[in-house]
Write a structure and sequence with these properties.
335 residues, alpha/beta, single chain, 12 helices, 9 strands, globular, 2 domains, TIM Barrel
Length: 335
């Protein structure tokens, strides 16, 4: 009996690593739709922004539903080829805010470090889809000038790790980066913007949690989820683990036409986000990046939906509706 048990254990399948999910991700519309039991309706347009959707995110989509709110966020569309007035490749003024390779200094007191250009999923509304990551990220040992810039400006109290998605870096690399940041005495806070705990909750490993727990500053992790269906038990467990290591967890969303631009959808998102342990933070109006015009929702409609949320939800469940405008000193509230 004992030897049989040992043999069965020896041949137990190895759990899939989060990086394996990336290697096995759907990378073209036909493949993605096939996994959902759907046929390709039109020949997909060529896109400068490749498709990338890992299976754990696909598993939260409804098979057979072309209007699934998660599918619509990641499925390329022929309208991406259209060029529309008011939409451009740098809608929030990142390039004008560059303080050197991989460093954006847009707002007083804080800087954003573009730690990598890689993401776990390619959202079709991404405002950095045309960002020149090949020359403008601080990964691969290119962050020394960024660290020198931060060290030389004592007004900088907060460093924001972004990208791409900073959690695409190996945990050891994140540790190296934050160890070097910890030598800068005027840094008071660390913020991490990431979609990994939502898209690939297996990324929240013991090593990652140990890194978070040992950070020397108050730490805020901002996860990005746009619909209640993006949460499941694995996502909840990962967020609990992050909070258990002392990090504050917030959720920010983008208002997306046909996906979450209704009061019931937004109310469901805020309730589900809070239940998972992520406090609602920002609800962004769409950044007008080239090719994303199909996601735009009317501002007056957004204001009406926010009024409904304020009537229905406790104050701490209502996010701030904002728009980011290039050149402004902060994100502009939309009243």
């Amino acid at each position: 009996m004992k030897s049989h048990s040992l043999a069965r254990t020896a041949f137990a399948p190895k759990p899939i690593d989060w990086r394996d999910h990336l290697r096995q991700a759907a990378r073209n519309p036909a493949e993605l739709l096939e996994r959902l039991g759907l046929a390709l309706a039109d020949e997909p347009a060529g896109s400068r922004f490749p498709m990338l959707v890992p299976q754990p995110f696909i598993d939260r989509m409804q098979p057979g539903d072309r209007r699934d709110p998660l599918l619509l966020q990641v499925l390329p569309d022929r309208s991406e080829e259209d060029r529309v007035s008011g939409y451009n490749d740098d809608p929030v003024g990142d390039r004008a805010s560059s303080a050197g390779r991989g460093l954006l200094h847009k707002y007083r007191g804080r800087v954003l470090l573009v730690a990598t250009g890689a993401c776990a999923v390619h959202c079709r509304y991404c405002f950095r889809q045309a960002f020149p990551y090949a020359t403008e990220h601080a990964g691969n040992n290119h962050w020394r000038p960024a660290l020198e810039y931060i060290a030389g400006d004592e007004s900088i109290e907060e460093v924001i790790l972004s990208g791409g998605d900073p959690l695409m870096l190996p945990t050891g690399r994140l540790q190296e980066l934050t160890t070097q940041l910890s030598a800068i005495p005027h840094i008071r806070r660390l913020r991490i913007h990431t979609r990994l705990p939502i898209i690939l909750p297996d990324r929240v490993t013991g090593n990652l949690l140990d890194w978070i727990g040992n950070l020397p500053w108050p730490t805020v992790m901002v996860v990005h989820a746009n619909h209640a269906n993006e949460f499941d038990d694995a996502v909840d467990e990962g967020i609990r683990g992050i909070r258990g290591r002392g990090a504050h967890v917030l959720n920010q969303a983008v208002l997306l036409a046909g996906i979450n631009d209704s009061a019931p959808a937004l109310s469901g998102l805020m309730r589900r986000s809070f239940a998972a342990g992520a406090l609602p933070y920002y609800l962004h109006l769409l950044d007008p990046v080239s090719g994303a015009q199909r996601f735009e929702s009317d501002e007056s409609r957004a204001v009406d939906m926010m009024e409904t949320l304020r009537r229905e939800l406790s104050g701490y469940l209502v996010p701030r509706l904002v728009r980011e405008v290039a050149g402004e000193p902060y994100k502009l509230p939309v009243l």
